[in-house]
Each structure stands twice: as structure tokens, then as C-alpha cells.
From TrEMBL:
InterPro entries: HTH_MarR-typ, WH-like_DNA-bd_sf, WH_DNA-bd_sf. It holds the Pfam family MarR. Transmembrane segments: none annotated. Keywords: DNA-binding, Transcription, Transcription regulation. This is MarR family transcriptional regulator. Residues 3-140 form the HTH marR-type domain.
């Protein structure tokens, strides 16, 4: 950061967000990764009624298929998901939430909504709007920086990450 105290303050603020764990959830004994996986499975089922494929989940979660498979096995043992081969292409493994999985996912979404509602109430409407606007600008800056980096390195940058 050099001698720039404002840049240092920004860095420290970002690090504090990670430590605060706002992005982490644990519901009914299920950890953050498992909860994220349930949400991705649910979203994938909205996109394709046959269920989420392991490869699409891998892409959404930005982890390898073996990692996804281990998470799915854990969720399957807990009765939160069912796993089966696609009827049209037997090589494709699909995953759907069970009723129990739907219930845990609903609880997680309610918890996340409550957290952000509380943040909104804490900040008030005006500061919440300012924060949302600033975070959008930060995202746009980081996204443009990554695109520029990919171009400089000769990468396509179209892998969706």
C-alpha cells in the first residue's frame, strides 16, 4: 500500500469483512459450503427441471467436479439431496433437493435475508443506498481490472468466472 493511508484503510476494511463472516452460513449443522451447494442445486433446478448437473454445479461454485461430488455425497447421506443419472444422457449425473433439503435451503435464505434486513435497518435507507452504489462501483472496477488482466495475459476471459 506504500504510504497511502486511505488505500491501507480500504485493505483493512476488506479484510475485516472476511473475518466478520457475513457471507458464511451454518444452518442445522450444515456448513457454509454445503449451504451454498444447496442454493446452487435449487437454482439449477429452476433452470432445468431435470435437476442440476454436477458439471453445472462445479461451474457455479467454481470448484472441481470431485469437490462437488464429495459435497453431494455428504448432502445425500444427510437426506438433503437425491442423485441420479440423466435419462437422456446416462453419463450426466443430476441432483435435486429432497423436502428436507428444501427446508434447510429455505431456512438459509431466511437467515441471509434477515442479516441484510438488519444491516439495512442499522444503516438506514440513505446509507444503504450509498453502500449498494459503492459496492456496485467496486465490482465494476474489479471486473474491468480482471478483464484487462486477461487481455494482457492473452487469455479469453470468457470462462464465466
Amino acid at each position: 500500500m506504500g504510504d497511502d493511508p486511505v488505500a491501507q484503510r480500504l485493505l483493512e476494511a476488506v479484510h475485516r469483512f472476511r473475518r466478520a463472516g457475513l457471507h458464511k452460513m451454518a444452518i442445522d449443522g450444515w456448513n457454509n459450503s454445503e449451504i451454498k451447494m444447496l442454493m446452487c442445486i435449487q437454482w439449477g433446478c429452476v433452470q432445468d427441471e431435470r435437476g442440476s448437473s454436477v458439471s453445472s454445479l462445479s461451474s457455479m461454485m467454481e470448484v472441481t467436479s470431485p469437490t462437488i461430488t464429495q459435497l453431494i455425497k455428504s448432502l445425500e447421506r444427510g437426506g438433503l439431496v437425491t442423485r441420479y443419472n440423466d435419462q437422456e444422457d446416462r453419463r450426466v449425473v443430476r441432483v435435486k433437493l429432497t423436502e428436507k433439503g428444501e427446508a434447510v435451503t429455505r431456512l438459509a435464505k431466511e437467515d441471509l435475508a434477515r442479516r441484510f434486513k438488519n444491516l439495512y435497518e442499522h444503516l438506514g435507507a440513505e446509507k444503504s443506498e450509498q453502500l449498494a452504489s459503492l459496492l456496485e462501483q467496486v465490482y465494476d472496477y474489479l471486473d474491468a481490472s480482471m478483464s484487462e488482466k486477461h487481455e494482457i495475459n492473452g487469455e479469453s476471459g470468457d470462462d464465466g468466472r
